[in-house]
Backbone:
């Protein structure tokens, strides 16, 4: 049972995290949960995605504009009835006049201040981002929310301090729900359609060699299309922490460290970082871009907990002839778990085991959704695989 797989634990040096409550099989679904907060990534994304479920909107006249704000649109009568955050709806028509650099945070704040209990409390209980320049904008963002939202709709407790506290939750705990993968769009140019915060998934800590990865299926039919689904990459022993990578796992050492320090406030000392910190690089390569795709984070610029950039491991490996195989003991991880489709940089997780416990040899990419069949491994662990679709 997916619900039995994880428990929350306090972990030295990492705050809370999710730990395997029992032995876990590779491919198992560890978590499947709806967001506590879901909000559009930008004003520009509104015409493309349903403002309730964030599926791609059908062409006019099948998309129904929100009767209140006329700026958002819904894909079905059910989504129109579900509507979208009430403060956001009330403010949306005037949001375009706000400075573009603040619009994303205003979308977050207006959506967060629309939350009811217990979701609002759950959001506030998440860990806070490190203090940074974005936090210095809290006072001006608070004033903008005050001017955009009708006073009678503002919740009890609305204050500059509460606004600052909310902002500190966003960057560290949000996942991007990305635009659909398209082979003709470079990974670094793909944008988020929405951001989501989760009660349990936002407790996942980072590892540069993760043992799990998450999937989104925003365009799948039926309910639960914005649920996050967490799957084990390989077997996990009871008591071990379950961790994901906060960005594409093939980012270079310096880029990973920079992102984790600036946006998540910690220095990664995982086994892989300890080895790669000893690698030698040309200065220009280690000073390279941060692989930001974001929004992502890419967000473009927002960091989020779970999507990545576009820097390739090949660049890292090839950068220095001194790094031989003894220095790179994790090669098999990348062969087995990184999608090799051009410009994808997704992670491959095995499909869930059969009810009998039989493990799957088919892997699914969490970015391009490609299925890849792993044939029986040869003794060298070579990449003996073929595409299923
Ligand atoms: C999405 S939250 C994860 C849950 C968080 N540990 C908590 O207590 O709520 C991200 C934050 O967890 C911490 N964190 C995540 N991975 C870590 C790691 N590998 N080492 C140290 N701290 C980590 C950092 O403070 C980071 O900003």
Residues:
């Amino acid at each position: 049972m997916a619900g039995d797989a994880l428990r929350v634990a306090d972990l030295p040096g990492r705050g809370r995290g999710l730990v395997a409550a029992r032995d876990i099989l590779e491919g198992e679904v560890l978590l499947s949960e709806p967001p506590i907060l879901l909000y559009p990534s930008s004003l520009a994304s509104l015409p493309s995605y349903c403002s309730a479920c964030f599926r791609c909107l059908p062409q006019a006249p099948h998309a129904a504009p929100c009767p209140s704000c006329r700026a958002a649109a819904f894909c079905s009568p059910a989504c129109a009835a579900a509507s979208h955050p009430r403060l956001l709806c009330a403010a949306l028509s005037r949001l375009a006049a706000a400075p573009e650099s603040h619009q994303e945070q205003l979308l977050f704040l207006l959506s967060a201040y629309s939350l009811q209990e217990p979701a609002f409390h759950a959001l506030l209980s998440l860990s806070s981002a490190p203090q940074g320049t974005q936090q210095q904008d809290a006072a001006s963002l608070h004033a903008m929310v005050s001017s955009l939202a009708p006073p009678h709709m503002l919740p009890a407790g609305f204050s500059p301090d509460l606004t600052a506290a909310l902002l500190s939750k966003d960057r560290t705990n949000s996942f991007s729900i990305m635009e659909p993968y398209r082979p003709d769009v470079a990974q670094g140019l793909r944008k988020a359609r929405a951001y989501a915060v989760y009660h349990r998934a936002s407790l996942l800590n980072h590892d540069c060699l993760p043992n799990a990865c998450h999937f989104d299926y925003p365009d799948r039919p039926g309910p639960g299309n914005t649920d996050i689904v967490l799957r084990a990459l390989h077997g996990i022993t009871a008591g071990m922490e379950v961790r994901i990578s906060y960005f594409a796992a093939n980012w270079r050492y310096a880029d990973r460290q920079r992102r984790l320090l600036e946006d998540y406030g910690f220095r990664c000392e995982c086994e892989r970082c300890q080895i790669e910190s000893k690698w030698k690089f040309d200065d220009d390569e280690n000073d390279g871009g941060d692989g930001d795709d974001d929004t992502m984070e890419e967000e473009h610029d927002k960091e989020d907990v779970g999507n990545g950039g576009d820097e390739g491991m090949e660049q890292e490996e090839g950068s220095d002839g001194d790094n031989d195989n003894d220095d790179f003991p994790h090669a098999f991880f990348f062969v087995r778990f990184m999608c090799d489709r051009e410009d994808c940089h997704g992670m491959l997780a095995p499909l869930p085991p059969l009810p009998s416990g039989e493990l799957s040899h088919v892997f699914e990419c969490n970015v391009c959704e490609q299925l890849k069949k792993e044939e029986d491994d040869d003794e060298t662990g070579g990449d003996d695989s073929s595409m299923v679709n």
Observations:
- Residues 37-177 form one domain.
- The first strand starts at residue 6 and ends at 11.
- The pocket of S-adenosylmethionine is lined by residues 13-17, 126-127, 172-173, 202-207, 264-266, 268, 305 (CB under 6 Å).
